[in-house]
Amino acid sequence: MIKKVHHIGIAVKNLKESMALFERVLGIKPAAIEDAPCQKVNEAIYRVGEGVEIDLLEPTGPDSAVAKFLERRGEGLHHICFEVDDVDAELEAMERKGVDLIDRKGRDGVAGKIAFIHPKSVNGVLVELVQPGSEGE
Ligand code: CMX
To answer: Which of 8, 126, 127, 131 maximizes ligand 1 atoms within 8 Å of its Cβ, making it the mutation to test the pocket?
Structure first.
């Protein structure tokens, strides 16, 4: 079951420049800056209000999914991540409904066990599921 929005990912070309922009325009600073080699991105993580994060995502190389996204679509909303109790159970239930899954099983991510659902199954929005505190196999 989906419990809440965990984070919203925004693709940016240059993390430093975008952090300066977010501070100038919105007056917010990141709570953390992290490398996520498993996703080939550097992230600036903002905690705004209760619980929901906004992650700015800068690709670390041309083979990053975010680099491909920037090339094709430019900067902007990249994905919405929902927190769930059990990633694998959600994937099984979605597969039964004919949803186009990018991952058939949860895998390791920065925040826990993660999986992606293809944007063509969700009105053009890339959806990530996360099960915090749990690691993928
Ligand atoms: N949101 C919406 N649509 C997207 C998208 C996104 N983030 N990324 C790609 N697309 C669209 C493309 O625009 C394209 O649409 P059209 O065919 O209508 O033009 C289609 O999906 C295929 O795009 P592509 O460039 O050929 O890309 P691929 O099929 O190679 O890959 C995707 C697309 C979503 C399967 C791939 O990006 C992926 O596996 N993403 C999951 C992993 C990821 O994005 N990690 C990033 C960091 C996450 C984090 O740190 O939390």
So the answer is: 126
Contact between 44 and 17 (Cβ < 8 Å)? no
pLDDT in tens, the chain (137 residues): 899 999 999 999 999 999 999 999 999 999 999 998 888 999 999 998 887 999 999 999 999 999 999 999 999 999 999 999 999 999 999 999 999 999 999 999 888 999 999 999 999 999 999 999 865 44
Q: Which residue has its alpha carbon closest to ligand 1 atom 49?
A: 39
**CA-wise closest residue to 60 among 35, 78, 79, 33:** 35
28 CA → ligand 1 middle, Å: 28
Q: Contact 80/8 with Cβ under 8 angstroms?
A: yes
Give the mutation target among 15, 46, 69, 114 for probing the ligand 1 site: most ligand atoms within 8 A of CB: 69
- Across the beta sheet with 126-132, the strand order is 32-36, 41-47, 53-59, 2-11, 76-84, 126-132, 112-117, 107-109
